[in-house]
Amino acid sequence: MIEQVPDTFRAFRIHNDEDGYRAGVESITLADLDEGDVTIRVRHSDINYKDALAGTGKGKILRRYPMCGGIDAAGTVVASTSDAFEPGQEVLVTGYGLSETRDGGYTEYLRLDSGMLVDLPAGLSLFDSMVIGTAGFTAALSLYRMEINGQKPEHGPIVVTGATGGVGSMAIDILTGAGYEVHAISGKTEQFEWLESLGASQCFSRHELEWGQRPLESARWAGCVDSVGGAMLSGIAAAIKPWGNIASCGLAGGMKLQTTVMPFIIRGVSLLGIDSPQCPHPIREEVWSRLGGAWRPRFLVEICRQRVGLEEMDEVFNRMLAGDSLGRVVVDL
């Protein structure tokens, strides 16, 4: 039986007007949402660092107000004027300006353009897809681009920075499942045992790293998935083996990059920018297909450290911005 859209439903809505910046759960109607040729009943979303910035107002994320937060969503089609989707289909969406230029996934019902949607891959549930979410998709897109550029497991270990975060923990799981030896870098040494349970063969404290002072360091890693940026990325670049790849997908440690061209012209290292929100749709579908198949994460339950409802998100936002988050948080609607 296809669900009918009720007259009103719950959403986590963000405002910024004469009464100030505020966000919370309220009742809205379908007419309050952006238009789209497909309407879905959202079952799950997730919380990313970007969502925490938007939900608290500590980052300039939203381009207009009011808007529903949430950069990801997974659910079931309830209405469609698109030939590509019909009621009852399970779908997901990540990126495409959700919670930035249009309403995002923190709402029980959501209207979207059909070109944004991906069929839920075989091998994943709607819940699984939001444990993965933008973080896991970014990690998988990093591996996709690295392999397009010649990366192979036999070249040597891949190092993952920011390893306890969403992208980092998902990257460890996906890379090890794809046959790579993975090393992890994190400041949370108390979580090394957890990182090893996800597949990391070696863990390093970022507080004890002594390399990065010279244009070229001893080459120790064949590649890197870096969600930190800043000084970390500068140091990593000097320690990558010849013809290795660095997938740069975050800037938690800063946006400035102070390095030399030496790793790139002496060792042939490639710096690959990962823009997951604007990933071309055919590549998006291919990567999600792999996430449901050969690259399916093995430790989704372990990586999902918390499930919350719409009313419980403020605490998670603040903890995430304080650097106390671990793994992934799924929002149940």
Structural notes for this entry:
The protein is of the alpha/beta class and 333 residues long. The protein has 2 domains: 9-120 and 300-332, Medium-chain alcohol dehydrogenases, catalytic domain (Quinone Oxidoreductase, Chain A, domain 1, Alpha-Beta Complex), CATH 3.90.180; 134-276, 3-Layer(aba) Sandwich (Rossmann fold), CATH 3.40.50. The chain is 26% helix and 27% strand. The protein contains 9 helices and 16 strands. It has helices spanning 49-56, 126-148, 166-177, 192-198, 230-237, 262-266, 281-292, 300-303, 313-321; strands at 9-17, 20-28, 38-47, 67-68, 72-80, 90-94, 109-112, 118-119, 158-160, 182-186, 202-205, 221-226, 240-248, 270-273, 304-308, 328-332. Strands 3, 5, 6, 7, 8, 15 and 16 form a 7-stranded mixed beta sheet that branches. α1 crosses α9 (313-321) and α2 (126-148) crosses α3 (166-177). The longest helix is centred in the middle third of the chain and has 23 residues, at 126-148. The two termini are 19 Å apart. The mean pLDDT is 95.
In percent terms, what proportion of residues is strand? 25-35%
Name the shape in a single word.
Answer: globular
Helix content: 25-40%
Which CATH architecture of the largest domain is right?
A: Alpha-Beta Complex
Find the CATH topology of the largest domain. Answer: Quinone Oxidoreductase, Chain A, domain 1
Low-confidence stretches: none
Structural class: alpha/beta
How many domains comprise the coordinates? 2
The secondary-structure element order is: EEEHEEEEEHEHEHEEHEHEHHEHE
Number of helices: 9
Q: Regarding CATH, which class of the largest domain?
A: Alpha Beta
* Main pleated-sheet profile: 7 strands, mixed
Q: Gyration radius, to the nearest Å?
A: 20 Å
CATH superfamily of the largest domain: Medium-chain alcohol dehydrogenases, catalytic domain
Measured between the Cα atoms of the first and last residue, the distance is 19 Å
Overall mean pLDDT score?
A: 95
Please provide the count of β strands.
16
